[in-house]
Write a structure and sequence with these properties.
By secondary structure, the chain is an alpha+beta fold. It is 33% helix and 23% strand. The chain starts with a strand and ends in a 31-residue tail after the last helix.
Length: 133
């Protein structure tokens, strides 16, 4: 086991940096304990890798700094960073296989990005309507 493991996860515009160290199972997101993190849906998403790891996760402390994007993008970036950190810190092939089988995005950041805006439209696809009559 390494003394500390630094990993990162990305989703849309959100970037999460995670530090995993030996400890007692504490998880902090931007210095807020996970128990009081809101919204609840995002908290449950972030806790998925810890719940899957089970007993192994109770021996480590996790600290995540996340910025950019919306709250759900931040939650998914955080869970990727945490899962990568746990695998890297514990050097556990079994855990890596478990994460990969459960949801591949736990270990691989989602590469999808927003399409660029085009002229004559408000977004990537929507255009101003034309009338010929």
């Amino acid at each position: 086991m390494a003394e500390v493991s630094n990993t990162s996860g990305k989703r849309k515009e959100a970037v999460a940096r995670c530090v995993v160290s030996a400890g007692t199972g504490k998880v902090r997101i931007n210095n807020v304990p996970i128990e009081i993190f809101t919204p609840e849906l995002a908290r449950l998403k972030i806790m998925e890798p810890m719940a899957l790891a089970g007993e192994k996760a109770s021996k480590v402390d996790v600290s995540v700094n996340v910025a950019g994007g919306g709250f759900m993008g931040q939650a998914e970036a955080s869970r990727t960073a945490i899962a990568k950190g746990l695998v890297d810190f514990l050097k556990d092939e079994e855990l890596e296989k478990l994460f990969r089988d459960y949801d591949r995005s736990l270990l691989i950041s989602d590469p999808r990005r927003k399409l660029p805006k085009k002229p004559l439209g408000r977004g990537a696809r929507k255009k101003r309507q034309k009338s010929y009559r």
